[in-house]
Amino acid sequence: MTTLTDPEPGRTTTRTDAVVLDGVTKTYTSKAGKVDALRGITHTFGASTFTAVMGPSGSGKSTLLQCAAGLDRPTKGTVLVAGTDLAKLNEVELTTMRRSTMGFVFQSYNLLPALTVFDNVALPLRLAGVRPRRRDVLAALTDVGLDGHHGRRPAELSGGQQQRVSIARALIAQPQVVFADEPTGALDRTTSHQVLELLRRSVDEHGHTIAMVTHDPVAASYAHSVIFLEDGLLVGHLQHGTATQIAAMMSELER
Amino acid sequence: MMLLDLSRHTVRRNIAPYVGSFVALFLGVTLIALTVEMITAVAEATSRLEPGDTRTRLQLDDLASMFGVMSGFSGFIAIFVVASTFSFVVSSRRRELGLLRLVGATPRQVRRMILGESLIVAAVASLAGCVFAHLITPPTLWLAHERGLTPMKLDPPSFWPTLAIAFPLGAVVALIGARSAARRASRIPPVDAMREAAVERRRMGFWRLVVGLLCLGGSLTMLVTMGAVTGELSLVLGIFAPEMLVISAVCFGPWLFPALARLIAWPLVRRGDVTIRLARDNVAASAKRTASLAAPTLAISAIGGSLLLTLGIAADWDHAINQQYLNAPVVVQGGERTGTALATSPAVKVADASASTSITLIDREGERELEDAQTVDVASAVAARGLTAVRGSLGDLHGHTIAMSESYAFDSGYRLGSTMRVAFGHSKPVDLKVVTVVKSAPSLYGDLLLPPGLVAATPDRWFVIPQPGVADPVSTINASLRGTSGHAESADAWLAATDADLRKNNTFALWVLLGPSGFYAALAIANTLLMGSLQRHREFVATRLIGATERQVRKVVLWESALVTAAALAMGAIISATVAVLVGRSLGSGLDGMPIDIPWLGLGAIGATCLAIATVAAVAPTTFMLRRVHPSQAAE
Which one of A244, B79, B328, B410 is least enclosed by Cβ atoms within 10 Å? Predict the structure, then answer.
């Protein structure tokens, strides 16, 4: 049994590890030459933890998230999600794995405009060939505070409401880990607060796991721990940091 | 089931990108359905015809097959047009499809969803096309009769054959068109849901490569065969080779067209302004959009161009053959008493009578087919019309025998020594033996020759060799024809008139065959460009934000569409020219000389029309959009 705090690198995998990155390197080759986006990242996202990934632009935050979610394949190193090595899966297996174990939340809410709120939330289940139970979908919407909105279309909702729908969608299949990419990037302060509270609550009360990329120290302060990236390297981490502490660490890095 | 449900939802809400596909398919099905209605009308009229009315029957048969070819062309063009509109739908929804993949849709599910959406659009568009075609059939039939296309006024046919043929055909066209788009959609990676702009990759799908190579191989084989054979086989290949070449060019389009456009832009960029440079880079970078825009232009220019050239060369060939073989210096046309007058005229040495009749061929399965034939007197035909045997002997053409031209023998599969079962009018069928195959000269003596006495045929034309020493034979013979309906003219005048007649018929056939599909292609080019421009709203706004004036953005768009169209036309010209050179070489071999008359006017018109449509269709929506946007919108 491990603690909920950031474990030391290199130890053996247990059931409570949601995502394990081991020596993950990602090199992009283009006409202009080689670019190292990640240079040997080793980190474990423990189960039921809320981790923020921070770093200046170009530090490799998004690449890290994409490699961890199997959206991109690392050049070197391994990624284990819920104990499964992603490198061993083909595209279809990866998709099946993704829909049962991962959820996604983005800056732009990425809801399908053609579907109602209910259908948007139920979509991952339907794609998996599971007939969604009305009760479950409505409960997921209640959890994010959207009682009675299930019949609306995304265009009829505010930005914060749309983001909450996408959180409900990410959580509906009870994933092992939710990847969030700047989930509050397009929201104002009050709405951001609601959304981040919601994410934190889903971890504390329902035991979900969240890995969130952000550049906003205030957003990062809602997480249990923050890891810092610079030039594709893991350069530090902070437990239960306040927004001020996180901001100070960021300015240190950006200097 | 769930996916079809999703398809239904997404089509209903995302109607805008599908409007283009709907319009393209609706027009295509309308065209196909219209030809089906015409064929049905012709068939219904034929079934009501008096059994003895062979001439009208022959005319209606020809008409039906012409409509058949026309619908073939329309269907062919429609596949390309519909395919390019579907591929626009997919590229405009890249993010959404990436998102579906991210939340757990497998590539297969995405492919099925796109196919499902296409099928829904196809069903609605095909039904609408069939109904619309049925509504416009009466005025079309009236117009066809008015313009002399049909020998009589045809009644509007029943709707069911149209629905049974054109409706499923529309669905098939849509499915072929949507296939590659759906395949492409299924390959969109989930990570595209997180990207603002995706770089198009030019990786080629396996099947695209296979189809492209097969068609390239097939068309090269055809071209090589055309180079090797002589005569009319090359004409037939000349009709089919362009279609194959178009398919393979479209398969390799994402490489071919940007490269061609770059090449065309090269001299312009060197001394031109920034807009040309930007246009060239846009065209080269968005390879798939460039290929989608170029496809309809290529299809119509290659097919139209090569058909125009091939038919022109066929006319040149006919003229050259007539000139080479026609020995008689005078040609007389007239009625019954003209023959008697010619026979008694002292100025006439040989009057070679050409009497046409229609005969009914009966094949082994008892299938009956009407054909034109002529009765000839061999000795005078050899003297006056240069009748030459290729196989067998002309001397054997008497009794129950028949002779045929080389090209007819090739087409029909009859050989020297085969037996043809033939009926004349209402009489009992007889068996005729093929005793000789003669050189083809369609205007001089047609395809099937009968010995005199087999059937009563009234001559209507005489090729006349005057007695030596007769000065001004045309006037002399005209003088001896006084009192009859006959009229003599010089062989040169007759040749010129025949040639002009043939070319007039060719032009007419071209209009009927390609007019509707050309019109359709024009609408389709406009439609595709419109879709392409409307998709680029953000890009235009961003270009304005970095300091481009409205005029500059318009110029970029103008140059882009000019470059794409020029690339497509260049490819079309290469295909047409290759086919024309080979057809010309192979028809011209064995002739003393065949002056080729290139129809520059027609070719120029095809090119100019494509360019004009492309320019207007690209610039109009851009102007409209630019008027309503402000650079500040880019920041939103």
Answer: A244
**Residue B207 token pair:** 């099947």
pLDDT reported for residue A8: 43
pLDDT in tens, B129-161: 999 999 988 888 888 787 777 777 788 888 888
Do the chains contact at A95 and B104, CB–CB below 8 Å?
yes
Helix or strand (DSSP H, E) at B307: helix B287-325
Taken as a whole, chain B contains a residue count of 636
B98 near B192, Cβ under 8 Å? yes
Which amino acid is it at B470?
V
Question: Which chain A residue is nearest to residue B7, measuring alpha carbons?
Answer: A114
Q: Which residues contact A152 (CB under 8 A, 6 or more apart)?
A: A116, A117
- Determine the Cα–Cα distance for residues B271 and B274; give it in Å rounded to an integer: 10
For the segment B445-474, what is each residue's pLDDT rounded down to a tens digit?
A: 888 888 887 887 788 888 888 888 778 888
Is B400:B430 a contact under the CB 8 Å cutoff? yes
> Bridge partners of B373?
B357
Cα dihedral B57, B59, B65, B67 sign: negative
Distance CA B123, CA B134 (A): 17
Nearest chain B residue to A107 by CA distance is: B194
Residue B332: enclosing H or E segment and its boundaries?
Answer: strand B330-333
Asked if B575 and B302 touch (Cβ cutoff 8 Å), the reply is yes
Helices (H) and strands (E) in chain A, counts: 8, 10
Residues B269-322 pLDDT 10s = 877 777 888 888 888 877 877 888 888 889 889 989 998 998 888 888 888 888
Chain A hits for B109, CB-CB cut-off 8 Å, are: 127
Q: Which of B421, B427, B363, B357 is nearest to B51 (CA)?
A: B427
Q: Which residues of B touch A124 (CB under 8 A)?
A: 103-104
Long-range contacts of B269-277 (CB under 8 A, 24+ apart): B274/B552, B275/B552, B275/B555, B275/B556, B275/B559, B276/B559
Q: Quickly list H helices, B48-159.
A: 54-92, 94-102, 107-146
Q: What would the pLDDT profile of B226-260 be if each residue is shown by its tens digit?
A: 877 766 678 778 888 898 899 899 889 888 999 99
Q: Quick check: B104 and A98 CB within 8 A?
A: yes
pLDDT of A200 > 90? The answer is: yes
Report the distance separating Cα B571 and Cα B574, nearest Å: 5
| DSSP codes joined into one string, B281-306 | HHHHHSHHHHHHHHHHHHHHHHHHHH
Interface predicted TM-score (ipTM): 0.71
pLDDT band at A2 (very low <50, low <70, confident <90, very high): very low
| A138, two tokens | 């409505």
Element (H, E) at B405: strand B401-405
